[in-house]
Amino acid sequence: MEFYYVYILLCSDNTFYTGMTNDLERRVNQHKSGYKKDSYTFERRPIELVWYLECTNPTEAIKIEKQIKGWSHKKKEALINENWKDLIEFSKNYTEYGHPNTRDQSSTSSDLHQFS
Questions:
Q1: Radius of gyration for the alpha carbons in the chain, expressed in angstroms and rounded
Q2: Bridge partners for 17 per DSSP
């Protein structure tokens, strides 16, 4: 059975890069080595793998990758930190609940967990 991985990298400028691959170790090593000079991560090295999800269906992996790419930085942090309360909060409709930056952020953690 082949696996597909959706992953998030933390870049040196504190931005996140989200990608999808069928070989996570190879792909992360490519990012780390600067395999493509025109890639998003090339000028933002060093990078660190901070989250990944293993999938068996490539279509589902692509769907999840695209969904996460549309998320805010704070929502990605909530996913990485497994902070489900904030992940739900940052998913709420702005017009109904207000912009996430104006909500109480006392429960948000800025510590990132590395997955290996």
A1: 15
A2: 9
For residues 20-36, give the mean pLDDT: 97
**CA 9/CA 78 separation, integer angstroms:** 14
Q: Calculate the average pLDDT of the chain.
A: 85
pTM: 0.79
Burial track 85-107 (b if 16+ CB lie within 10 A, e otherwise):
ebbebbeeeeeeeeebeeeeeee
* Residue from 38, 2, 34 nearest 21 by CA: 2
Burial group, residue 56, by CB count within 10 angstroms (0-12, 13-18, 19+): exposed
Ordered domains of the chain (ranges, CATH): 1-70 (3.40.1440.10), 71-116 (no CATH)
Over residues 95-116, mean pLDDT: 49
In angstroms, the CA 22 to CA 43 distance is: 24
Which structure tokens are listed for 83? 């902070």
- Between the alpha carbon of residue 11 and those of residues 15, 36, 42, the distances in Å are 5, 15, 9
